[in-house]
Structure prediction request, 490 residues.
Amino acid sequence: MSFAELGLSDELLRAIEDSGYTEPTPIQQKAIPSVLMGRDMLGCAQTGTGKTASFTLPMIDILAQSRAKARMPRAIILEPTRELAAQVADNFDRYGKHHKLAKALLIGGISLAPQEQQIERGADVLIATPGRFLDCYERGLLLLHDVKILVIDEADRMLDMGFIPDVERIVRALPKSRQTLLFSATILPEIRRLADKFLNDPKEISVSAPTTTAETIEQFLIGVEERDKDAALMQVIESEDIQSAIIFCNRKKQVDALAHLLKRKGYNAGPIHGDLPQSRRMETLESLRKGELLFLVASDVAARGLDIPDVSHVFNYGVPGNPEDYIHRIGRTGRAGRKGHAFMLVSPEEGESLGDIQRMIGQDIPWKALEGRKKIDIDLDAKPKRGRRSGASGKGGPRKDAPRKAAPKKEGARAPSPKAHGRRPERKETSGKKETSEQKEAPKQKEAPKQKDAGDKTPKADGPDWQIPAFLAEPPPAASTPPRRPRRKT
Ligand code: AMP
Prediction:
């Protein structure tokens, strides 16, 4: 099936072609015609499936039929994290480049004033995190009676983060006659309840995450004792012709240590993980996008779901605990038909996790010997040693299919007063943050997360150490089954 068969406008087809997409992904094939017909939708899909375009593309054509008015958005996209919201906004610009539509990106952590101006000028679509959206609404900046389309994206992450009460308040403030699209990686009972409440005879679609790796990626394993991983990694790096690379670690401490080591060795490297302030994370990603960074050292927590630009190499410092993470990680390279290279350092304790990955992708990844290093035997049935921290093997860590329950409402969430239209002080909002096995290694974070997050929460847009990344500062044009996570805080 081609994009042209989906009923999209010529302007969109041109923008799609400019993006280099040749055919719609399964979720796009299933979703786009129904969304164009105005149907509600319950989509079971993860990031990486082309989900964003599946709702953004038809939304653009629907919105193109009329014009934005000041403070009266016609579509709302709710995202659990600032990064995802910024990314969706980016996609909206890319796909809508031949249309005269305006968007406003409403996310916390940056000054409200430019966002207020965007709303005032007239935004067809608001792409928002729930906290900042409610902030704007309660300040009387938004009139919602013209909203025709609502997208609740990544509903299961909203649930994990305790955002569902905020989402429910937003939905209650919207007109009843609207089109609602709800996406979630898994349809948990709580998500089903939301769907029953807010969707009207939805079309249900489900697409699974890919379980194979792209043929354009050349994959290698390197057997190495845990204590020799730094040296082995440096050896591989020096022997490869790297344009830019992402090094994935299972733990935040490893991310920091490795970024530090690479910098000491004279490489341009930056860390990204869930404990770093939001502003730094976005800055680091921006540097990678601009080609200023050679190495991004990342944890899954910060990298999952982000559209990280094409890179020549992916290194796995440790074997990911969830096999799907391996596909997700190495999928950052070898994109759009280009050649990619993926290396994974495997210690004897990680044999079992490696076995899981190979079973899932249905292939044996070849081993590569490093010059001057003795061969290490890895037993694919080897259990991780007792007492060892989870993360590298992941067998002891939380699984994606672990049962979850709704997170309690986050601290600092607003008192219920949806009708309040008086001006209020600016609401603080957290960045999106997930826990993976990496957080298990640092129990003290559980006791003192507030202090850690304080910087993350409210970086000042005009603070001395932070520039708003260009793609966030731009004015609008004219006119993943995740592991159990703890309660979030604001
Ligand atoms: P998403 O699941 O929306 O996060 O999209 C994952 C990645 O797939 C993004 O990098 C998109 O730019 C890309 N993408 C979306 N649709 C297509 C398509 N039809 N063909 C190729 N890549 C796509």
Summary: Confidence is low (pLDDT under 50) at residues 386-490. The radius of gyration is 22 Å. The chain has two domains: 3-206, 217-361.
